[in-house]
Protein 1
Amino acid sequence: MKKLLLALPKGRILEELKPALQKGGIIPEPDFFDESSRKLIFQTNLDFLEITKVRSFDVATFVKFGAADLGICGLDVLEEFPSNEIFRVVDLKIGKCRLSLASAKNKNIDPLNLHLNSHARIATKYPNLVSAHFANLGIQAEIIKLNGAIEIAQKLGLCDFIVDLVSSGKTLVENNMIELQKILEVSSYLVVNRTSFKVSNQQINHLVKLFDV
Ligand code: PRP
């Protein structure tokens, strides 16, 4: 029997996932949480389930194409890459943060009058979300796609604004930036590939119940 594959995101969210897995009674093999392990696929105590860890943006891609049957993915990623092949089944209420527009503190930008900036240059990991948001505001946005360390782009004069995830706010404070506008409230979702949902409905429903406690 082919096992189901659950793709989990690497990084800080993995720590928050530990209790969620525990609560659902899903126990990965010991080296899953070992950062130094180079293994790609891990077994669990459930005989029909294997897990893997990939970059958070890649979770959506693996699930979209059915390479992974299920995944855990932030709403930021799901909104950036919307797909009819990905069902959002449980809001796990972990990995909570927000996607926000920010700028340098000393620019004194009035968040209520953003439309006065008829043109804005914005660095972000989320070009689709950001262009849709600014189109709604009637602001012409030039978007610069980066893959990380977005805050430095503004510091080095690459852009006027950034759009990035804000959790504690520490990164913005330490880089003399302020949050101007919240664009999206984010938490992590259990997602399922559409075809897997049909083909392995019984096992997937069982898993959904384990997570939905
Ligand atoms: C994320 C995000 C911010 C930071 C916000 O970066 O992109 O840079 O966390 O967190 P804070 O509000 O608690 O300071 P991450 O550490 O995931 O790395 P990245 O910059 O490479 O994306």
Protein 2
Amino acid sequence: MADRPQSHAVTTLPAWQALRQHREQMNDFNMREAFADDSQRFDRYSLSSCGLLLDYSKNLIGDKTLELLVQLAEQAGLPASIEALFNGEKVNGSEGRAALHTALRSPIGRRLELDGVDLIPQVHQVLHQMTELVSRIHSGLWRGYSEKPITEVVNIGIGGSFLGPQLVSEALRPFTQRGVRCHYLANIDGSEFRDLTARLNPETTLFIVSSKSFGTLETLKNALAARDWYLAMGGPEAQLHKHFIAVTSNEKAAVEFGIKAENIFPMWDWVGGRYSLWSAIGLPIALAIGISNFKELLAGAYAMDQHFTQAPLAQNMPVLMALLGIWYGNFWEAKSQAILPYDHYLRNFTKHLQQLDMESNGKSVRQDGSPVDFSTGPVIWGGVGCNGQHAYHQLLHQGTQLIPADFIVPVNSFSPLADHHQWLFANCLSQSQALMHGKTRAEAEAELRAKGLDEAEVQRLAPHKVIPGNRPSNILVLTRVAPYNLGALVALYEHKVFVQSAIWGTNAFDQWGVELGKELGLGVYQRLTGETDEPASDASTQGLIQHFRERHRG
Ligand code: F6P
């Protein structure tokens, strides 16, 4: 990539070294004191863009920290990497591919050439194809074999062909167009298939086989099972095309599966699976919320792209969030990152980010194949608040690990219920406040004495009541979870992940690590089913195969 100091390990950059020293100086940094000393801390360390407010004031940072982190980004060649990403350079080095998910939300009229071909007309051609399908289904023009309109859409896909569409269609449930319900079938587990199909009528169901490769085991098995189910339920074979469409970059395999060429929506190898919800992989989203809302989603993501490419690094939301992640992961030994949406409709956000972040940044070598000597992507975990407060927040507050948290919360709820939303918002803020503030030994003792406990009891209980505080969190506030804001939010995290990989010098767009398990799966399957008697290469696998064969009744 142009102007990237690839030959330099990031750890040798002067800013990295300076950050190491600065980290030592920050040992005694106390956020509570920093807030007490600086009434402007929120104003200085918060930022609004694309309908999102990012409050990053509750972090273990001062001006010096930010200055050094921005220097790190500059010295690592981040501006050139961003340019390379958007210009279609082969940023996915190991697969020799560009990663142009940003082209999918680019307005018509712009030009973006890849290998001499302008991609934008192709993107808009597919968007047009999607618009037609959505309109035919919503208007009832597309009918099933018995002439009934389609009311159920089942997306058969896994990973990026599932998590992004599921997140968005569920997050935007208040925008659902009447008449079409979307369902997701991802896992190969027969229980998932049975539970779903028990609720479906083949006459009114459309299956979207969604697979960039059209070679993913789980998806192909489920697609075959769906076809068998359709036929077994009385669906005529000659009318299959009214009930099965596909989204894939492997048209040949989809046609071989039996899907009509005109019912296949294209994907491109320059879009990674986990970045693909903006493409025809987003069909279930468009069917759920309508094409205008889908375009609003794209517009929000495009606005974030504009912000990302144009804002100075120090006022750039994805860059700042990425740098904070690097600060904690590489200088404070944080191993995980909590994602805590305070919104029922955003409950799948953490799952989407798990794939986005962990599949992108779970790497141990740099683009040039040399091993890294620092931590890369953290474990992403979390879930919806307030539920988490009554489960795992204990570890955030008093556990031994430093776990930075991102709180995500809308100002307005789509389901006002008495004062519930005020309480939800209050809980979100107070959790972040508690992480920062903590409770000192003196405060804990005073609290216990105020309750009238004797001194021995005060001393016995006080250590358990101490909350260290000084634990970092960001708060991202949306006015409401609407298509535009959500598009911006998802794109924000996409860019955050990219910035980290660009600084580390790793490849955010391949995922070789997932392949070995798939390769070994066939051998295990053949031994489980008795296709081969050859023992497995290790005693554990062989013992478990034996255990299964002796007990399996199915
Ligand atoms: O196995 C991992 C993976 O390749 C993901 O990267 C991808 O999102 C998912 O499988 C599904 O792939 P496909 O869309 O090709 O079925």
Protein 3
Amino acid sequence: MSSMVDDSALFSLNLSAELATLAADPELIALQRRLREALLQDQLSLVFQPIFDIHGLRLHSAEALLRWHHPELGDVSPARFIPLAERSDLILDLGRHVLAQAVAQIARWQAQGLEPVPVAINISGAELKQEGFARQIDEALQRHGVSGRLLRVEVTEHGLISDFARATDNLRAAGELGLGVALDDFGTGYSSFRYLRHLPMHALKIDREFVAGVDRDARDQRVVRAMVAMAHSLRLKVIAEGVETESELITLRRLHCDYVQGFFTGRPMPPADFAALLASQGGATAPT
Ligand code: C2E
Ligand code: MG
Ligand code: MG
């Protein structure tokens, strides 16, 4: 009984802290309201950034990234609105929207006679904790007749920590549907071996923090080399994020990264442009 009292006391403390922050920042409240409207008014869309095999630069997969175009505010960055949405259940609605849009887009490419590559969606902590996480994914796949092998999820260590056991179960269930799992922003969080040991994962994404200027920084090169060796010993593939120059690409190739994503090889692009890329590359490589 005492634990119930403690929990609810803690809850109301958290809640009042949250309200205090919100009250202190009316701009945040307004933005949150606008974001709810955005969901209803179709202001949100997905762009797709290509991920290439680092050696042959063959198209390997894509990351779906959310974009918000507000009629008055213009483009609002996900780096701003995702953390805001994560402060309430709004993130669950956004997550459902992204899942539905991504799977529908894969189905559209297939209907156009293209052979899509796997598409990764970003998953927030609150979504990972949700009961029925894999069921929702399964329903979306079934609705559009899309194979689970064409969908991937990216999770961050930050997203895993609040309920690690549930997150692991959910990711395992998603894995049973054929989905690959990548650990995003690797190196910026706890980089705990616990995650690497226990999670049903396929890939690590090395954060841009270690990639930007890696060609000129011997220390970053040593860090990346160590991350890659560790990942490979755990049979994980390595995706280098945020590669902006050819020199970075060449260095990352030498450091044995497997895949590359960044402005140098391809910016996030609308579905029609990605369709052209799919057509030019002549379809999919086998998902690994
Ligand atoms: P992320 O998942 O790490 O995504 C990679 C970010 O790096 C994207 O920013 C992408 O546009 C950017 N990027 C890619 N290549 C380069 C490069 O060469 N140079 C630079 N400077 N940046 C590059 P974006 O689209 O602004 O997204 C920011 C973050 O917002 C994402 O980081 C992700 O954490 C979150 N996000 C985006 N879409 C979603 C979504 O649908 N759901 C959730 N939960 N989070 C999302
Ligand atoms: Mg990501
Ligand atoms: Mg990242």
Protein 4
Amino acid sequence: MAGSRYQYVKKFELPDPILPGTFMVLRIDGHAFHRLSEVHKFAKPNDERALQLMDHAARDVMNEYKDIVLAFGESDEYSFLFRKSTALYNRRQAKIVTTLTSLFTSSYVFNWSRYLPDTPLEYPPSFDGRIVVYPSQKEIRDYFSWRQADTHINNLYNTIFWALVQQGGETTTQAHAILRGTVSGTKNEMLHSRFGINYNTIPARYRKGSVLVQERVCSLCSWIFELPPASSDDLASTAGETPGTPQQPEQAPSGSSKQKASKKAHALTRIELHHCDIIGDEFWDQRPYLLAE
Ligand code: GTP
Ligand code: MG
């Protein structure tokens, strides 16, 4: 009702732009997942089904928002890195946080029965979300190193803790007491000597977390569509696959003149899941575009 005497209240809605020319990281974290994991009897210390469900929700977010170039997940959290120059929703903070957190949550619920078919969802889970802005590549590298180091620290602790309880017969209080003040070398040694577990043989998913990357696959393409010159929006033009069905850019349907096959190298991407190291240089050196404009 334009021009009504009530309309002035609209002026109280102040803009909340994120600083241009900075990197944005959105971190989504499960709310009270200690309870959710107990109620739904998640395996301890890691429930692969629940972690795969998190990966699925994160992939759905990346499929919808092509400006996300990288995501890292562990436990009940996922961090999303946007390309530096993203203009998503005019960089309006609340719009980005709420819309993406909402999409992540609805995907988590929507796909729950696919990953935990024998475990009915007892109540609606929720996630919080926040955006942190970083000025340079250094902080982005350090941010993701921080999250992956956290994954390792938590997983090592949880692995030995639950081994002490489930296999060693200790109470949870005793297990906490045994581990209090121990360094990682001691935990590794205890895992090996008491339980015969070599920490390095534990699945990489648990040790390294999940790394979802908009991988550039143009070097793999021999026959692809003729496309306009790659803009940043084009970069994710093939990223709509579902898990287990990577897109095949080389399979060009025939019929249209615009679909004339060509050998031009275009920046096609697809989302790939890794459980690899992202603290060292190798991961980033192989993918300089992640931290480009
Ligand atoms: P808030 O985030 O502050 O709301 O609390 P939270 O209860 O979600 O705890 P936090 O995010 O710090 O940690 C996540 C919790 O989720 C862990 O402490 C576990 O209790 C639970 N969790 C996450 N992944 C798994 C899993 O694979 N197995 C089990 N058993 N629990 C998990
Ligand atoms: Mg949480």
